[in-house]
Design goal:
Elements: H1 8-16, H2 22-27, E1 32-35, E2 50-63, E3 72-78, E4 84-89, E5 104-114, E6 119-123, E7 126-129, E8 146-149, H3 158-171, H4 182-187, H5 193-201, H6 209-213, H7 218-242, H8 254-263, H9 270-284, E9 290-295, H10 301-314, E10 318-322, H11 326-341, E11 347-350, H12 356-367, E12 373-376, E13 390-396, H13 403-410, E14 421-426, H14 432-438, E15 443-447, E16 458-463, H15 467-479, E17 483-487, H16 495-513, E18 519-522, H17 528-539, E19 545-548, E20 561-566, H18 574-581, E21 592-597, H19 602-613, H20 617-628, H21 630-634, H22 653-668, H23 673-691
Parallel strand pairs: 4-6, 9-14, 9-15, 10-12, 10-13, 11-12, 13-14, 16-21, 17-19, 17-20, 18-19, 20-21
Antiparallel strand pairs: 1-8, 2-3, 2-5, 3-4, 5-6, 5-7
Helix pairs in contact: 5-7, 7-22, 7-23, 8-10, 9-10, 19-20
Bound molecules: adenosine-5'-diphosphate and magnesium ion.
Length: about 700
């Protein structure tokens, strides 16, 4: 369709924002609204009011450092009423090239009296360039009403998008089609699609600005709901399809139960029992298991994974355990080896740094089926690592594995038609509905209970200048027979730098601060044997204080360690610090986490406050997501997190919940087979492109 005002250049810019079709433009929601019903001439402005003026730049100047964009940008504006209005923008030097004298603009903001200049002024007003191209265009579209503000697409600014959208809506015959199932729409009293789209862009008069900016107008709610509904339907259909695929039927015999009991060093918690039964049910089913096991650090996920491994092994299958780092793989290896020794299972470790000859040997054990449990890093995924009868793959830390890697793992199964069951463990728990959405194809189990006898970890913030107090505290704890970690951040992905910091600190702590204590060092650049030796010594209590980089973030399990000191805590991410803190508090003694901070940004302060306040991984993950935004939190590439048009999985978590329930009910009990088929076709036609992951068969 040809659109007036969209030439090839603009079309290309729109495309960078994923706006390819008229439909895309119509569903591209304004991210904010402004009430510009109060349009005034400058002469009629009164201090204190929110107003819009249409004016021309008379003069402008930048004060301060232009280069670093720190300058104060000031401009004066005038209009037909001959009034003069000042506008000021801090950090506004970039505006010098935009608001040049003679430029016509619309300004929107709060009017103040600037006693310094004697003029009326607006501080940081919103501005919109009135381009020549649009001269004579209908200003009533842009002022005199509540107007939508869009995110610019390249050089296509909000005003152009508004004009474009308006033109489309004017030119288009009302869309009669409303794909949302009518019984749901009626029950939820949602407006029809066409009305919703119109009101989304140009809210009806009398709309409440606050409601609009909270994304809860009836039109917005309906479109958000709709977006989530189709997404969740797509995921449900995909899951339903997965349940029809053939997998391994593991038998849950009395013997299997006996063997699990034999292995267990503790009585499992209620939560552990519950998730094991969810896992066992999956494993005994005819379709492959694809399950996410969520639980806070130290909640005992690994123990549950070990139970699942026993089920697989007693059924004559092998188990692969995949970990993101060598340290974690090594930890898992020791943990599983210890548990499984009693049962006579053979556990081996395959990592990138095993010598070629040893690796050859290990690979033979795996290929011959002589190794029951093969623990490893990415090295396990290499094509020449072959299993005789792989039945279960346990993957730790979902975040760091991409889709291709998961695929590589599935291909290690006995044959193409018998993929292994997969259990993914993550210590960054997120709300269930969100997990089901973001990790689309996974079912979700949650361990929401800590092993008994755990005392909450006392967390304190200490500023750098009080580091002496931290040292004397460490001294005391060691005198009581405890052990401690001191961790340095990896700065900008440079393990080399962190290593230097850790090495330097190790020197200082071992020679000057604690000459009488045994201070160890652990960082990523050590040879595997050295790492193992350092961890071993710490585990055996032969090291009092372990200085380390974040390599210990996950996996280390030393119950006698009671203090975690995080240096330069402002440089760490929230989830990362929570993980680190989870290294202590594993025994019966009171444990401490000390966050040593330098200069804190506002966000940094918020992160520290969150940790000091709470030990709850769910709360912390939620805060982390809020502080960082979902894109960065999940890492857009790895997860199947779809690019949403209007819904936000954080802001609209409540709508997501409703939509998920409706979608699950709709797919499970569609009003008719035809309705379900229509929905499937609709999803395929309309959502496939954006949600790549939604495959409907
Ligand atoms: P996660 O993998 O969830 O971080 P782990 O499985 O490493 O947790 O368990 C943390 C610690 O708690 C380990 O030392 C583990 O042996 C211990 N543990 C696990 N389950 C229990 C339980 N039911 N009772 C007592 N201790 C447990
Ligand atoms: Mg199964």
């Amino acid at each position: 369709m040809y659109l007036k005002g969209v030439g090839p250049a603009r079309a290309a810019m729109l495309e960078t924002k994923g706006l390819k079709t008229v439909e895309d433009l119509l569903t591209c929601a304004p991210f904010r609204y402004e009430d510009r019903s109060n349009v005034k001439t400058i002469r009629d402005l009164a201090p204190g009011e929110m107003a819009t003026v249409l004016a021309e730049v008379r003069s402008s100047k930048v004060a301060g450092f232009r280069r670093r964009n720190l300058g104060l940008f000031q401009a004066t504006f005038t209009d037909d009423s001959r009034g003069v209005l000042a506008g000021k923008w801090f950090h506004g030097a970039y505006l010098a090239d935009i608001l040049t004298p003679g430029q016509k603009v619309a300004l929107y903001g709060k009017v103040e009296f600037d006693s310094y200049s004697g003029h009326l002024a607006m501080m940081h007003p919103e501005y919109e360039i009135l381009s020549d191209e649009e001269d004579g265009s209908d200003n009533s579209l842009h002022t005199g009403r509540i107007v939508p503000i869009y995110e610019a697409a390249g050089k296509v600014a909000t005003r152009a998008l508004r004009t474009l959208t308006h033109r489309i809506l004017e030119g288009l015959a009302p869309l009669r089609d409303d794909p949302l199932p009518p019984h749901i729409r009626d029950r939820m009293k949602l407006p029809d699609r066409w009305t919703a789209i119109q009101d989304l862009h140009f809210p009806p008069t009398g709309s409440d600005l606050r409601v609009l900016n909270a994304f809860r107008s009836p039109a917005q709610y309906r479109l958000i709901f709709e977006e989530f509904f189709w997404l969740e339907c797509g995921l449900e259909l995909k899951r339903a399809k997965a349940r029809l695929q053939p997998g391994i039927w593991f038998q849950l015999t009395d013997r299997v139960r006996e063997r699990i009991k034999e292995m267990l060093p503790f009585r499992p918690t209620g939560a552990q029992k519950r998730v094991l039964s969810e896992i066992a049910t999956d494993m005994a089913a005819s379709h492959p298991m694809y399950r996410l096991l969520q639980g806070d650090v130290g909640s005992g996920k690994t123990l549950v994974a070990a139970e699942a491994a026993v089920i697989a092994i007693e059924n004559g299958y092998q188990v692969a355990v995949l970990a993101p780092t060598e340290i974690l793989a090594t930890q898992h290896y020791f943990y599983f080896k210890k548990l499984f020794q009693k049962l006579g299972y053979v556990t081996i470790l395959v990592t990138g740094s095993v010598s070629a000859r040893d690796k050859q040997q290990l690979k033979k054990l795996a290929a011959a089926g002589l190794a029951h449990v093969v623990v490893g890093t990415h090295a396990l995924l290499e094509a020449d690592v072959i299993f005789k009868r792989l039945g279960l793959a346990i993957v730790d830390e979902q975040h760091r594995f991409g889709v291709e890697q998961r695929q590589a793992l599935l291909e290690k199964g006995i044959d193409k038609d018998t993929p292994p069951d997969v259990l993914v463990m993550t210590a960054t728990p997120i709300p269930r509905t969100l997990a089901l959405t973001v990790y689309g194809d996974l079912d979700v189990s949650v361990i929401d209970e800590m092993p008994p006898g755990r005392k909450p970890i006392v967390t304190k913030q200490v500023t750098e200048d009080k580091i002496e107090q931290v040292y004397s505290f460490l001294q005391q704890q060691v005198a009581q027979g405890r052990q401690a970690y001191v961790v340095y951040p990896v700065i900008e992905e440079s393990e080399a730098q962190a290593m230097k910091a850790a090495q330097k600190m190790h020197g200082q702590l071992s020679r000057i601060v604690f000459p009488d204590l045994r201070v160890g060092l652990l960082h990523g650049k050590l040879k595997p044997a050295e790492k193992e030796a350092a961890m071993d010594r710490f585990q055996r209590g032969e090291i009092d204080i372990l200085v380390s980089t974040t390599v210990i973030e996950v996996g280390v399990d030393v119950p006698n360690a009671t203090v975690m000191v995080i240096e330069q805590a402002e440089r760490f991410g929230l989830a990362q610090m929570h993980q680190l803190r989870g290294r202590v508090g594993r025994g019966a003694d009171q444990s401490y986490c000390i966050l040593v901070t330098g200069k804190l940004s506002e966000l940094g302060r918020e992160r520290i406050r969150t940790l000091v306040e709470s030990c709850d991984g769910f709360y912390i993950a939620e805060m982390d997501m809020n502080l960082r935004g979902p894109g960065e939190f999940f890492g857009t590439r790895q997860s199947g997190l779809p690019a949403l048009c209007i819904g936000s999985i954080i802001r609209d978590a409540d709508v997501l919940e409703v939509a998920r329930n409706e979608a699950a009910a709709f797919v499970a009990h569609p009003p008719s087979d035809d309705a379900l088929r229509r929905a499937a076709v609709f999803i395929r036609d309309h959502w496939q492109r954006r949600y790549g992951l939604v495959q409907v068969g």
